[in-house]
Design a protein that fits this description.
It catalyses: ATP + H2O = ADP + phosphate + H(+). It comes from Amphiprion ocellaris (Clown anemonefish). By secondary structure, the chain is of the alpha/beta class. Helix content is 47%, strand content 11%. Strand 3 and strand 4 form a beta hairpin.
Length: 777
């Protein structure tokens, strides 16, 4: 270990050391190669438990929702009034308001967990309870009567106030238990089976196209048993096929699919799965965790953390960026496992060009234009085909089968399609024969740690992931090129790629169903969304971890809160991977939950009625988007069918119509430019416009010339972005690339000159002297 690394760890140890004795894991006892690992374990153990001795962070009391009390006046009777006398409401109001204003009472309540916010809410509820109840408990009635008569002190109200406060805020009585449940500081201890064995961790580090995953997979194929964990269904499918083609029986497990190679359904020794689906209870000889840098992903990072800490495998092969090496090494210190690092260099070079493409006329075979929105995809693909070129289209919401079909079309040397228009979905999971990557933009929408959407420049890691698709080792292009569509973006791209990738510093965590169930035991009246909020508010994490964003989970929880479901079923429904931007998918999710709550199985006929199957091929982009949403709904059905098999029984039939739907979507994507034109009836066919443009009246050009020129020069953000433009002929010609701004300006001048000559001729015929401006050239 380097001197710098020792200094780094020692500084952290100094910062986090406390009085607790460092805990040594069982795995560390079996490593007899000196005491260095023991010291590392002690340092990290101290780090992991460091916050035990520090004061717990105060809870976010804005998340504490008061519980409505169901009181029955008949329970209390009139004992209090019979023993004393009826209470005067006006006098009671004065007493309660005096109690509220006493600083001593507020301070005493704060010592018992009632901050100013909760104290106020509790008092409002208590006052309403006292003044509106026709019959109070006997003990409270007697105390209030004594105070009214001068025989008691106003402070005597405090115990009854606190009793009421704990009834409407039940978390006050169990705050210590809630803190223990939400303590996430030592996640390695959640996986005792993995801690019971001494695992060997091998990190395959390198850029894209360096062969790092290839070497890990070779070890996976040679093992007696193994599991591959990837970020995408496409990657899991690829390893599934590669393994079986190599004569190694391998099963496939994704959220929506289970494929067993054994005809009787017995599990094979090898399995390829999406990382969320990996089993942390099954023993393997070798496990491969791909794209380990995604352990810091704000939404999905928890799945990589779980796999890395929990997989029961003799060898753990992790593949990813070199920026993750130090962090993974430090994470493994907490488990007593050293990391062996294998580094790889890119197999084929790629270079950044010194010039931008600037025009779609300059495209070449093997080009891939990368966009960060579907509108850009639609606009650019249409302009490319207006030039008589064919292009393939790939974006994230397309079904896997359609993505593979488009990739195959682009890769086929005998296919006339030589251009690819894609989002950053090509960064993983597809083998593409790309010569040149062209960034249409360097800005993309992103979700920050708070779950807020924002536009930001792509990171070095993202740029390298996409740029690395150029000149792949297995493709016909042995050298790759990278550039931008627009001249102004090129220096920015060079600046981005010149930086080193930011080192990974934290790993994601997510509350488990068991933890939420324990929370619900203490807070039975809280909603699932509120339980999650309180859990995150109280959670304590070590400096190596963060709690993943739970906004999508809460969105689904709020959507089905009114539906009567048990907590475990509700939790499972809320972990479903759905696209909440699609209204039809959200509506379907809601209907699925309602049908499930009635204990009525969701049959194939029910699903067909819901999605209006059979479906016709798309006639425009709106139809295509709807078909993609229907595909997502069928995915949701399949995902739920593996969690609730009796309630979603017709998996085979649904999978069959999903394949048919995939074919329909493929047909739509193949004709995507026709769909785009059909979507906007104001858009004419560019080729037809080109052939007829000379017959158009010059007035159209002149009327729009200044606005078009202004937009062309000044609105860089609308370049080929599908943004709203003037629907005039001039605008369409410029947008379609059939008329350049310079040519448009020249046409305007010629038209203006012709118009002046026509006016002068008319004036001479009418005997009118020409104006000075008409004589000017």
């Amino acid at each position: 270990m380097s001197v710098n690394r020792c200094v780094h760890l020692f500084s952290r140890l100094q910062r986090h050391i406390n009085t607790r004795t460092s805990r040594i894991t069982s795995g560390g006892c079996r490593v007899a190669s000196g005491s260095s690992l023991l010291h590392k374990q002690q340092a990290v153990s101290s780090r992991n438990v460091s916050s035990n001795s520090s004061s717990s962070k105060p809870p976010d009391t804005s998340l504490f929702v008061p519980v409505s009390l169901k009181t029955d006046p008949a329970v209390h009777g009139t004992v209090g009034a019979e023993l004393t006398q009826p209470l005067d409401k006006n006098e009671l109001l004065k007493i309660l308001n005096r109690f509220y204003k006493k600083k001593e009472m507020q301070k005493l309540a704060a010592d018992h967990g009632l901050d100013a916010r909760l104290f106020h809410q509790a008092f409002i509820s208590f006052r309403k309870y006292v003044l509106e109840m026709t019959s109070l408990p006997a003990d409270l009635h007697i105390i209030l009567s004594d105070i009214c008569c001068g025989a008691g002190h106003i402070d005597d109200v405090y115990p009854y106030f606190m009793r009421h406060a704990k009834q409407i805020f039940p978390m006050l009585d169990c705050m210590d238990d809630l803190r223990k449940i939400s303590d996430l500081r030592v996640p390695a201890d959640w996986y005792p089976e993995a801690r019971a064995i001494q695992r060997k961790v091998i990190f395959h580090a390198g850029p894209t196209n360096s062969g790092k995953t290839y070497h890990a997979i070779q070890r996976y194929l040679a093992a007696k048993s193994g599991v591959y964990c990837g970020p995408l269904k496409l990657l899991a499918h690829e390893i599934f096929e590669k393994s079986n083609n190599a004569g190694v029986p391998c099963d496939l497990v994704t959220g929506e699919e289970r494929t067993f190679v054994d005809s009787e359904g017995r599990a094979a020794g090898h399995v390829a799965c999406t990382i969320e689906m990996c089993s942390v209870n099954t023993p393997y000889e070798v496990a491969v965790i791909d794209e380990i840098q995604m352990i810091r992903d704000p939404s999905r990072g928890w799945a990589w953390t779980r796999a890395l800490l929990g997989l029961c495998a003799e060898e753990i092969h992790v593949c990813g960026e070199p920026a993750a090496i130090d962090f993974i090494r430090e994470l493994m210190y907490s488990t007593g496992e050293e990391v062996e690092v294998h580094t790889y260099q890119r197999l084929t070079p790629f270079s950044i060009l010194d010039h931008a493409v600037e025009s779609l006329d300059n495209l070449r075979p093997g080009d891939c234009i990368v966009c960060f929105s579907k509108n850009d995809i639609y606009s650019i693909s249409r302009q490319i085909e207006a030039r008589g070129l064919e292009c393939a289209v790939i974006y994230g919401s397309l079904p896997p089968g359609t993505k593979l079909s488009q990739a195959k079309k682009f890769n086929n040397p005998d296919d006339p399609c030589k251009i690819l228009v894609a989002t950053d979905a090509i960064g993983m999971g597809l083998n593409l024969s790309i010569k040149r990557i062209i960034f249409n933009s360097l800005v993309k929408p992103n979700i920050n740690e708070k779950g807020e959407k924002q536009m930001e420049t792509i990171s070095t890691s993202q740029a390298l992931q996409i740029a690395g698709r150029a000149g792949r080792f297995s493709s016909k292009f042995k050298e790759g090129e990278v550039t931008t569509m627009h001249r102004d973006d090129l220096p920015v791209l060079k600046e981005i790629l010149s930086h080193t990738v930011d080192p990974i510093e934290t790993a994601g965590l997510h509350p488990t169903a068991e933890q939420i169930e324990m929370f619900a035991y203490h807070l039975p009246d809280a909603t699932l969304s509120n339980l999650l909020d309180i859990f995150v508010s109280l959670s304590q994490v070590d400096g190596l971890y963060f709690v993943c964003n739970i906004d999508d989970f809460k969105f689904l929880a709020d959507m089905i809160q009114h539906i009567p479901l048990n907590l475990r079923s509700r939790y499972v429904f809320c972990t479903a991977p759905i696209n909440k931007k699609q209204p039809f998918v959200c509506t379907s999710f809601l209907k699925f939950a309602r049908q499930f709550s009635r204990d009525e199985p969701l049959t194939f006929d029910w699903v067909c009625r819901h999605v209006s199957w059979p479906l016709a091929p798309p006639k425009n982009i709106k139809d295509l988007v709807h078909l993609e949403a229907v595909h997502d709904v069928l995915d949701l059905y399949l995902w739920l069918s593996y969690r609730f098999m009796d309630m979603f029984p017709d998996t085979a039939f649904v999978r069959q119509i999903q394949r048919e739907l995939d074919d329909i979507i493929q047909q739509g994507v193949r004709n995507i430019t026709r769909l785009i034109r059909a979507t906007d009836p104001n858009i004419t066919d560019p080729l037809q416009t080109q052939s007829n443009r000379r017959s158009q009246t010059g007035s159209n050009i002149g009327a729009a010339s200044s606005s078009v020129l202004t937009k062309t020069r000044g609105q860089r953000g609308q370049r080929a972005s599908g943004g709203v433009m003037d629907s005039s002929l001039a605008s369409r010609l410029v947008r379609d690339g059939l008329l350049t701004p310079d040519l448009l300006q020249q046409l305007q001048k010629e038209w203006s000159k012709d118009q002046k000559q026509e006016n002068a001729k008319e004036n001479r015929l009418n005997g009118v002297e020409p104006r000075l401006s008409d004589k000017m050239p």
